[in-house]
C-alpha cells in the first residue's frame, strides 16, 4: 500500500448566490429585467453582492439561476464583471479576483432544488457562504467564516452558522414580518435551539420554551424579532442533507428538521446575532425601496451610490446634507424639497418637483409640480406635470399623463401610458404593451 | 425625620422542606454555626444601616425571638408580630398581618426571608433601586452548587430551580417563575416579546427572596381589591403577577392615576393654590396596577437560602470559611471564648465551638460545628458533623457526617444520620443513613 500522502487541498472560499430567488417582484418588473439585476440606487443588485464578495476575498462565486429568458442577461453581466476584473487592477488580497460561475437549471423552484443540483454536480468543495441574490450586505464575511470553521473544528456536528441581525443592526422599517424570526440561542455555545418565522400563518404569538432546554443548555438568549438577511455559512454537509430529504425546500425547513432530529442525526446549527454591520434583503418591492433608502443613507458604506460599482469611479455628485446624488449630466436643480434621491444621467427634473427617497433612472423627465415619494423610477420615464407617485415602481419608457395619481404599492410595467387625471387603485399592477386605461 | 426604608423579615415559615428538623424548633431558630438562622438577615440589615426591623413569627415564638437581640449582640430593635399558623399561612398572609406596622412615611419596603445567608451589600441594592427608579428590585444570584452530601436517607427529590428571564444588558426583570411551578413548557406572552430586546432566560439563577418594593406597590399587594388578595405566596404568586403587569395594558383615563382618590376639581384647586408644584403621592391604595418597573440585582457572590436540608447542611459545614464574609464586623467568634476545651482534646482548626460548651479530654473533633452549652464527653470521635445547642454526647460515641439536634445519651455509632430525639438512640447500636426523630402521636 502506498503511504497515504498528505493532500493539502487549498481551501478555496466559495460563495453561492441564489439568483432565482423565492419571492419575485412580480410580472411587470421581471418581464424586462431579472430580479437580481433590478437596480437599487441605479446599480444592479447582483453587483453589490459580487463586489462585496470580492472585497472579502472570496475566490469563487456560483450564481445559481433558473434557465429562463433572463439567463443570458445574467451570464452576460457576470462575464462583464470578470472581464472588468482583468482590466482594472484589483486591490484585493487574492491575485485572481473573483471567479463567477453561472449555473442554471431548468426545474429549479426553490433553494432546496438549487442545493440538490449543486450537490449532484459536486461544485461545492467545502464551507461556503450562501447568499440570496437580493441581499445587500457589508458584513464581515471572512470573520464569520473563520468563526464557523473554528466551531466546526471544535465540534464536527456544527454544520451551519446562521447569521441574524439583532436590534442594533437593523431598524425595523424594512423588516417585514416574513423576514424576522424568533430565535432561542444558547448563551454559552451559540447553538440554535428554536427557530420560528414570525408573521405568516403563526397561530399564536406566544413563545413556549421547553424547560428541558433550560436545564440542559444553561442560559438561553431569546431574540423575539431578529432580522434575517439570508446570509448563511454552510458546511459541505448542508447540500447532502438537502439531497437526502426531498421535502426540504427552504432553509427554514432544514433548520427545523435539524433541530427536531438532533438526537437522531446529531447535527447542530450555530447562530450568530450581530449588532453591528449592515445587511438588508430586498425581497419585495417595498423592501427594495426600503433597502434603497438605507443604501442612499450610506448605511452600506463602502458600497455607496456615488461610486459606480462597475467602474469604481465616482459617477455622481453627492450632497451629504440632503443625501442626494446626481449625475453631472442631469439637469437637477437642488431644491429644498429634495431628500434622499438618486438621479441618473441625462434626467431632467423641474425645479418645482418634490422628490423624496426615490431613485430616478437615466433620461427621465419630470414635469412641474410632480410629487414622487419613495419610488423607483426606471430609465426613459416621462412624468407630466402635477402627477403624484408614491411607493411605486415605474418601468422603462412609461409616460404618465398630467395629474395622474398613482396609489402606494402600484407597479407600472414598461411602456405603459397611463392617461391623464386618473387615479389608480392601491397595489394595482399594470402590465406593459397594451395600455390598460 | 422621614425614614426612607423599612425592613420586614419573614420568619413564620414552617420549614416545609426540612420537616425532620423543624418539628420542635421553628426554622428561623435552627442553629447555623452556633447562631440561630434568623441572626444572619438581621445582621445584614444592621450592616446596611437599619436600626429597626419588623419580624413576623409564628405563634409562640415571640418570646424567643424577642430575646435574640441581647443574646447575640445585635444592634437593631425588633418589632415582633405574630401570625397564626392555623390555616397554613403563606408569606403574603404574613405581610397582611403586619400591614399596620408599616409606617406611612417610608418610601421603600425591604422584605427578606429569614433563611437567607448572603454577603451582598444591601446598601448597593437600595442604591440601584433608587437610582434606576425601580418599583421592585429582586436580588438574584447564581444557584449555588452544593458539593456536600447531607445526612439522612438518600432522597431522589430534585427540586426544580427558578426560571428568571431578564432583558440582556439592562437587567430588567421580565419573567419569573418559582421552581416547582412549571412543567414542561414556560410560555412567554406576546406582549413580553414585543419589547424586542434580547432576553436572557436562565434556570441557573435563583430568586434570593430579598425584595425591595416601593410603598405604593406594597400597598397594592396588601390591597384587598387587587388580584393579590387571593394569593398566598409572595415569591410564587405575587411576584410573577407583578412582573407580568409590566406588559399588560391598563389604559386609565387619568394620566395622573388619581382614580377616585382625589376628585378632579380638588386636584385643580390644589394645583392653582400651590402653583403646579403638586405631585400626586402614590400612598393611596390602588386596585389596578400601573406598569411597575421591575429590576434584578444580580449578586455573583455568596447567596444561599437555607430552606432545604441540603442547603442548611452545606452552610453549616462551610460556616467556618464563610463566617467573616456573611457576618462581618461582629464580635461573635467561631471559637467562643466561654467554651472550655480541655488540653488533651483534639479539636481541629476548622471546627466551630459555641459558647459554654465543654469539650472533655481524649476527644477528637474534626471539621465539625458544635453548638452552645454542649458537653462532649471523653473518648468521643466527632467528624464532619453538626451539633445543635444543649447537646450532650455520651462517652465513646463515634459520630460521622451527621446532624445531631438532641443529646446522644448512650454510646453508639452514628453515620449519616439526623438525630432529633434522644429516646431513639439505643445502647451500642450503629445507625447509618437514618432519621431518628420522634414519631408523631396521632392519638
From TrEMBL, chain B:
<feature type="domain" description="Nucleotidyl transferase">
    <location>
        <begin position="7"/>
        <end position="144"/>
    </location>
</feature>
<protein>
    <recommendedName>
        <fullName>Translation initiation factor eIF2B subunit gamma</fullName>
    </recommendedName>
</protein>
<comment type="function">
    <text>Acts as a component of the translation initiation factor 2B (eIF2B) complex, which catalyzes the exchange of GDP for GTP on the eukaryotic initiation factor 2 (eIF2) complex gamma subunit. Its guanine nucleotide exchange factor activity is repressed when bound to eIF2 complex phosphorylated on the alpha subunit, thereby limiting the amount of methionyl-initiator methionine tRNA available to the ribosome and consequently global translation is repressed.</text>
</comment>
<dbReference type="GO" id="GO:0003743">
    <property type="term" value="F:translation initiation factor activity"/>
</dbReference>
<comment type="subunit">
    <text>Component of the translation initiation factor 2B (eIF2B) complex which is a heterodecamer of two sets of five different subunits: alpha, beta, gamma, delta and epsilon. Subunits alpha, beta and delta comprise a regulatory subcomplex and subunits epsilon and gamma comprise a catalytic subcomplex. Within the complex, the hexameric regulatory complex resides at the center, with the two heterodimeric catalytic subcomplexes bound on opposite sides.</text>
</comment>
<dbReference type="Pfam" id="PF00483">
    <property type="entry name" value="NTP_transferase"/>
</dbReference>
<dbReference type="GO" id="GO:0005829">
    <property type="term" value="C:cytosol"/>
</dbReference>
<dbReference type="GO" id="GO:0005851">
    <property type="term" value="C:eukaryotic translation initiation factor 2B complex"/>
</dbReference>
<keyword id="KW-0648">Protein biosynthesis</keyword>
<keyword id="KW-0396">Initiation factor</keyword>
<feature type="compositionally biased region" description="Low complexity">
    <location>
        <begin position="136"/>
        <end position="149"/>
    </location>
</feature>
<keyword id="KW-0963">Cytoplasm</keyword>
<dbReference type="InterPro" id="IPR029044">
    <property type="entry name" value="Nucleotide-diphossugar_trans"/>
</dbReference>
<dbReference type="InterPro" id="IPR051960">
    <property type="entry name" value="eIF2B_gamma"/>
</dbReference>
<dbReference type="InterPro" id="IPR005835">
    <property type="entry name" value="NTP_transferase_dom"/>
</dbReference>
<dbReference type="GO" id="GO:0005085">
    <property type="term" value="F:guanyl-nucleotide exchange factor activity"/>
</dbReference>
<comment type="similarity">
    <text>Belongs to the eIF-2B gamma/epsilon subunits family.</text>
</comment>
<dbReference type="GO" id="GO:0002183">
    <property type="term" value="P:cytoplasmic translational initiation"/>
</dbReference>
<feature type="region of interest" description="Disordered">
    <location>
        <begin position="136"/>
        <end position="158"/>
    </location>
</feature>
Amino acid at each position: 500500500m502506498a503511504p497515504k500522502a498528505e493532500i493539502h487541498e487549498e481551501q478555496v472560499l466559495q460563495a453561492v448566490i441564489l439568483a432565482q430567488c423565492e419571492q419575485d417582484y412580480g410580472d411587470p418588473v421581471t418581464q424586462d429585467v431579472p430580479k437580481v439585476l433590478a437596480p437599487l440606487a441605479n446599480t444592479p443588485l447582483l453587483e453589490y453582492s459580487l463586489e462585496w464578495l470580492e472585497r472579502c476575498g472570496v475566490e469563487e462565486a456560483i450564481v445559481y439561476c433558473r434557465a429562463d429568458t433572463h439567463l443570458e442577461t445574467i451570464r452576460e453581466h457576470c462575464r462583464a464583471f470578470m472581464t472588468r476584473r482583468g482590466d482594472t487592477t484589483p486591490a484585493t488580497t487574492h491575485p485572481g479576483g473573483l471567479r463567477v460561475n453561472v449555473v442554471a437549471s431548468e426545474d429549479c423552484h426553490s433553494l432546496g432544488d438549487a442545493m440538490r443540483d449543486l450537490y449532484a454536480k459536486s461544485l461545492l468543495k467545502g464551507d461556503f457562504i450562501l447568499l440570496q441574490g437580493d441581499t445587500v450586505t457589508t458584513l464581515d464575511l471572512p470573520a464569520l467564516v473563520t468563526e464557523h470553521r473554528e466551531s466546526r473544528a471544535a465540534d464536527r456536528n456544527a454544520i451551519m452558522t446562521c447569521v441574524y441581525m439583532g436590534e442594533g443592526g437593523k431598524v425595523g422599517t424594512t423588516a417585514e414580518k416574513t423576514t424576522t424570526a424568533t430565535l432561542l440561542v444558547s448563551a454559552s455555545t451559540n447553538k440554535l435551539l428554536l427557530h420560528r418565522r414570525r408573521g405568516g400563518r403563526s397561530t399564536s404569538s406566544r413563545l413556549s420554551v421547553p424547560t428541558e432546554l433550560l436545564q440542559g443548555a444553561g442560559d438561553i438568549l431569546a431574540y423575539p424579532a431578529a432580522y434575517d438577511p439570508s446570509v448563511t455559512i454552510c458546511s459541505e454537509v448542508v447540500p447532502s442533507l438537502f439531497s437526502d430529504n426531498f421535502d426540504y425546500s427552504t432553509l427554514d425547513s432544514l433548520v427545523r428538521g435539524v433541530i427536531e432530529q438532533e438526537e437522531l442525526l446529531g447535527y447542530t446549527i450555530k447562530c450568530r446575532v450581530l449588532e453591528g454591520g449592515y445587511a438588508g434583503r430586498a425581497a419585495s418591492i417595498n423592501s427594495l425601496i426600503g433597502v434603497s433608502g438605507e443604501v442612499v443613507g450610506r448605511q452600506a458604506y463602502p458600497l455607496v451610490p456615488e461610486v459606480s460599482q462597475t467602474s469604481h469611479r465616482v459617477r455622481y455628485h453627492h450632497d451629504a446634507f440632503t443625501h442626494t446624488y446626481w449625475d453631472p449630466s442631469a439637469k437637477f436643480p437642488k431644491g429644498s424639497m429634495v431628500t434622499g434621491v438618486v438621479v441618473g444621467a441625462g434626467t431632467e427634473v423641474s425645479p418645482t418637483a418634490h422628490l423624496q427617497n426615490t431613485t430616478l433612472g437615466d433620461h427621465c423627465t419630470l414635469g412641474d409640480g410632480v410629487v414622487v415619494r419613495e419610488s423607483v423610477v426606471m430609465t426613459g420615464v416621462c412624468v407630466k406635470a402635477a402627477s403624484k407617485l408614491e411607493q411605486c415602481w415605474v418601468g422603462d419608457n412609461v409616460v404618465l399623463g398630467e395629474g395622474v395619481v398613482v396609489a402606494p404599492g402600484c407597479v407600472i410595467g414598461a411602456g405603459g401610458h397611463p392617461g391623464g387625471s386618473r387615479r389608480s387603485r392601491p397595489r394595482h399592477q399594470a402590465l406593459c404593451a397594451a395600455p390598460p386605461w | 425625620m422621614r425614614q426612607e426604608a423599612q425592613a420586614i423579615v419573614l420568619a413564620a415559615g414552617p420549614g416545609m422542606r426540612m420537616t425532620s428538623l423543624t418539628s420542635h424548633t421553628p426554622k428561623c431558630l435552627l442553629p447555623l454555626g452556633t447562631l440561630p438562622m434568623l441572626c444572619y438577615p438581621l445582621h445584614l440589615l444592621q450592616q446596611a444601616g437599619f436600626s429597626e426591623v419588623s419580624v413576623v413569627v409564628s405563634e409562640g415564638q415571640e418570646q424567643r425571638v424577642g430575646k435574640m437581640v441581647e443574646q447575640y449582640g445585635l444592634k437593631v430593635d425588633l418589632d415582633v408580630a405574630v401570625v397564626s399558623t392555623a390555616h397554613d399561612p403563606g408569606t403574603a398572609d404574613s405581610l397582611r398581618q403586619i400591614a399596620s406596622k408599616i409606617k406611612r412615611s417610608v418610601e421603600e419596603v425591604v422584605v427578606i426571608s429569614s433563611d437567607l445567608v448572603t454577603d451582598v451589600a444591601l446598601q448597593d441594592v437600595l442604591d440601584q433601586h433608587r437610582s434606576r427608579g425601580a418599583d421592585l428590585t429582586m436580588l438574584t444570584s447564581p444557584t449555588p452548587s452544593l458539593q456536600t452530601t447531607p445526612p439522612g436517607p438518600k432522597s431522589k427529590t430534585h427540586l426544580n430551580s427558578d426560571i428568571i428571564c431578564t432583558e440582556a444588558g439592562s437587567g430588567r426583570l421580565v419573567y419569573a417563575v418559582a421552581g416547582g411551578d412549571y412543567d414542561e413548557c414556560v410560555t412567554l406572552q406576546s406582549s413580553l416579546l414585543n419589547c424586542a430586546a434580547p432576553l436572557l432566560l436562565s434556570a441557573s439563577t435563583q430568586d434570593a427572596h430579598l425584595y425591595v418594593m416601593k410603598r405604593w406597590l406594597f400597598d397594592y399587594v396588601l390591597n384587598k381589591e387587587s388580584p393579590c388578595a387571593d394569593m398566598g405566596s409572595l415569591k410564587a404568586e405575587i411576584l410573577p403577577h407583578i412582573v407580568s403587569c409590566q406588559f399588560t395594558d391598563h389604559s386609565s383615563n387619568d394620566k395622573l392615576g388619581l382614580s377616585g382618590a382625589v376628585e378632579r376639581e380638588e386636584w385643580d384647586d390644589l394645583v392653582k393654590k400651590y402653583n403646579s408644584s403638586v405631585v400626586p403621592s402614590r400612598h393611596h391604595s390602588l386596585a389596578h396596577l400601573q406598569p411597575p418597573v421591575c429590576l434584578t440585582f444580580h449578586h455573583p457572590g455568596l447567596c444561599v437560602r437555607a430552606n432545604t436540608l441540603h442547603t442548611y447542611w452545606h452552610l453549616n459545614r462551610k460556616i467556618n470559611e464563610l463566617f467573616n464574609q456573611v457576618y462581618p464586623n461582629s464580635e461573635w467568634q467561631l471559637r467562643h471564648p466561654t467554651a472550655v476545651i480541655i488540653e488533651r482534646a483534639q479539636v481541629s482548626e476548622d471546627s466551630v465551638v459555641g459558647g459554654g460548651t465543654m469539650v472533655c479530654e481524649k476527644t477528637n473533633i474534626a471539621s465539625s460545628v458544635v453548638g452552645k452549652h454542649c458537653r462532649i464527653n471523653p473518648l468521643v470521635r466527632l467528624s464532619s458533623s453538626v451539633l445543635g445547642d444543649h447537646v450532650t454526647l455520651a462517652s465513646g460515641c463515634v459520630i460521622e457526617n451527621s446532624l445531631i439536634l438532641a443529646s446522644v445519651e448512650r454510646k453508639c455509632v452514628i453515620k449519616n444520620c439526623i438525630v432529633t430525639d434522644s429516646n431513639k438512640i439505643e445502647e451500642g447500636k450503629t445507625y447509618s443513613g437514618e432519621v431518628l426523630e420522634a414519631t408523631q402521636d396521632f392519638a
